[in-house]
Amino acid sequence: MSRARRPVYLNQGGIICTLGADLANVERNLFAVQEHSFLTTTDHYSPGQPQSLGQVPLELPAVTIPCEDTRNNRMLAAAVSPLLPAIDKLKSRLGRQRIGIVIGTSTSGIAEGESALTRVDNQIQLADGYRYTSQELSAPTRFLSNWLDVAGPCWTVSSACTSGGKALTSAARLLDLGVCDVVIAGGVDTLCRMTVGGFSSLFVTADTPCNPFSRNRSGTNIGEGAGVFILSREPGPVRLAGFGESSDAYHISSPHPQGIGAHDAIVRALDMAGLKSEDIDYLNLHGTATVQNDLMEGLAVNRVFGNEVACSSTKPLTGHTLAAAGAIEAMLCWLLLQRDDGLLPPHLWDGQRDPEIPLLNGLGRADLGRPVKAAMSSSFAFGGNNLSLILVREES
Question: Helix 325-336 to helix 163-177 angle, to the nearest 10 degrees?
Fold first, then answer.
């Protein structure tokens, strides 16, 4: 007999992305009636080849630990800063050892490594003062644990586009095991030439805002941002009701064309939450606007939910923030679940359906007509790494 899981709550959150640098601005821009994208066209990360990117147009303050001062850590600090008073109270009440940290990233401080590299007389040189540790995957969690002065378990998840979401599942397991009373968890990634060039080399990026599920889709837009939650057993506005994880092991960068792993992750999340497909009011799609991902996701969603579930992809608004995507999109659902007006995140596209993708009548539905009680957010990563999260509204 399996042991029943005690509830895990997403008590507070902090976010920064193209939609804004705080919860209020992100929520306002997310639910505003709009027909434009927040993306930026630039060749800064792809010289001579302008791309549409989800770039955060802000000068981020330096972090207070000089050897950890990367844009990635600055982005993370910007998301966490509104949570500092709550974290200080938790430390005083619970102790430093009972607070853990799990952060998802894939870029870490790679941008600083790129800037530090120069070629002189056919020799590669690194700038004075550059530290390789700034681009280690451990850098964000190491920085955060030192900056926040917490001493619980601390690690980084790097599983490509599922990283930020899987940080939340890791946090839930720490709480379930009783190892921590509180876990600070989420994801962060920042733009750099490696990711923009890497995805471009796969011919899956677009130089205009992406067009998910359209017959005219031509690729995704790489983005940046951070989303961080405080998770605990203490009741909060939203509960992490279930999650499902799977692996296709089909191809290093392409999903299984029939969406087998995606389907499994969705079903496992429903099983853990004790919900049926018809209980999900809104589905935040991975929706990268790449040919293969949209097709397999459409197949998986239709197989589980039929064609009427309200759904949208928010990547035309934020860009694909890679390791931060799962956390940021969970944050958008978290905001949605605390509203009473029934408005849903928009799906910006040209409305030209791809006939090869199963019909999703709920794609881009603007208004549910009642408050959303349960939302699912899915992420599907390189290597066939799949994750679905279910968040539910806690009635007061």
Answer: 70
Cα–Cα distance, 334 to 348 (Å, whole number): 20
What's 61's DSSP letter?
P
Q: Whole-angstrom Cα distance, residue 299 to residue 285?
A: 12
Q: Write the pLDDT tens digit of every residue in 146-190.
A: 999 999 999 999 999 999 999 999 999 999 999 999 999 999 999
> Is this structure's pTM higher than 0.90?
yes
Instruction: Count the neighbouring beta carbons within 10 Å of the beta carbon of residue 94.
Output: 16
Check residue 2 and give its pLDDT: 45
Q: Give, for 345, the enclosing helix (H) or strand (E).
A: none
The rounded distance, in Å, linking the Cα atoms of 218 and 324 is: 22
Three-state DSSP state, 156: strand
Going by DSSP bridges, is the β-strand pair 282-284/374-381 parallel, antiparallel, or unpaired? parallel
Beta bridge partners of 229: 13, 185
- CA 137/CA 160 separation, integer angstroms: 12
Q: Which helix (H) or strand (E) holds 311?
A: strand 311-312
Number of Cβ within a 10 Å radius of residue 62: 13
Cα 392 to Cα 376, 379, 389, distances in angstroms? 9, 18, 10
Indicate which residues carry an active-site annotation: 161, 286, 320
Residue found by looking up tokens 């606007």 in the block: 289
Q: Which helix (H) or strand (E) holds 295?
A: helix 291-305
Strand 225-232, strand 182-189: pairing:
antiparallel
- Among candidates 370, 215, 383, 236, which has minimal Cα distance to 294? 215
Burial class (CB in 10 A: 0-12, 13-18, 19+), 353: middle
Instruction: Tell me the two tokens of residue 139.
Output: 């850098």
Say if residues 318 and 289 touch (Cβ distance below 8 Å): no
pLDDT on residue 157:
97
Strands 117-120 and 40-42: unpaired
CA dihedral 189, 191, 197, 200 (to 10 degrees): 80
For residue 286, what are its two tokens?
A: 């991975």
Distance CA 11, CA 186 (A): 13
